[in-house]
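---------- Forwarded message ----------

FYI, see the Methylthioribose-1-phosphate isomerase record below. Original note from H. follows.
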Amino acid sequence: MKVDGRAYRTIWPDPDGESVIILDQTLFPHRFETARLTVVEDAARAISDMLVRGAPLIGATAAYGMALAMRADASDTALAKAYEQLHATRPTAINLRWALDRMHAVLRPLPQGDRAEAAWEEAARVCDEDVAINSAIGDNGLAIIRDIAAKKGSAPVNILTHCNAGWLATVDWGTATAPIYKAHDAGIPVHVWVDETRPRNQGAFLTAWELGRHGVPHTVIVDNAGGHLMQHGDVDMVIVGTDRTTARGDVCNKIGTYLKALAAKDNGIPFYVALPTPTIDHRVHDGIAEIPIEDRSQDEVRFISGRSGEAVTRVDLLPPGSAAANPSFDVTPARLVTALVTEKGVIPATAEAIAALS
């Protein structure tokens, strides 16, 4: 995607051949800056501290983390240590383990002298494939938006999304936003309701930022406004991403997604989930019982950053002594999902349809 006329990915190898560059998403939307990863510890911190976030981008960063580790030490011990160090950073997003397993499978059989170059090349392939996958998701989701638009005439298709499943959550294009970008670029009128997505405000800080840079009409809303808009006919479809999808079609996404799915079901509004197939965890069936939900620091609930003039300020929102809980994800049962939009097509959220993908 483009920022001020320049094409960007969210992660790319530095021309020096020794480091990796990422967009530091903790600074958005007030500052647009990059960060440099030079050792595996940098990659692990970028994932755990959410300089990068979104399941596909977490996987891509982990792949480059393995490559950085092999640059420093290509021994079997270092390979195993890097795998565990990166795997421990975030428990919910399955793409993390998928990318690490893929890198390990490529590197483990190789002589140590060949591992560094092979790791660098494989990490680049992971990123290139992610771009192609998300573009295909966009093509498949575009058909859904086009069908709705045909029924509405010249009125815009109103789409509600939650959290950030945009190009900032992937290497490029995004998952849930890819069909939106494709529709906008095709001249189909669209308007996006952007949930703020407390407590880290990925919708307000990231989704709104990237939609604005691409010229897509959008409006930021508080998280609890979605149901009201659906009741009054102001939402034509909901589309979200997912950090892990079970073998039977349960989807785990940012906290608050389940409530949007319930509201959509009650109001007869289609609820779509856009995902690359590596986000499917075929070893897990019952999402509520089996997917580990990451509990993050209560400080993310207590504090918020905002701009005051030219200064970016962090303020405390809660009364002294009040505790805060911060579960980062929830699980939406498959019965509430209209369809899964994958790079291989739009399928029902059922065990049979998911099994047929592989």
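H. also flagged this: The chain has two domains: 2-129, 140-357.
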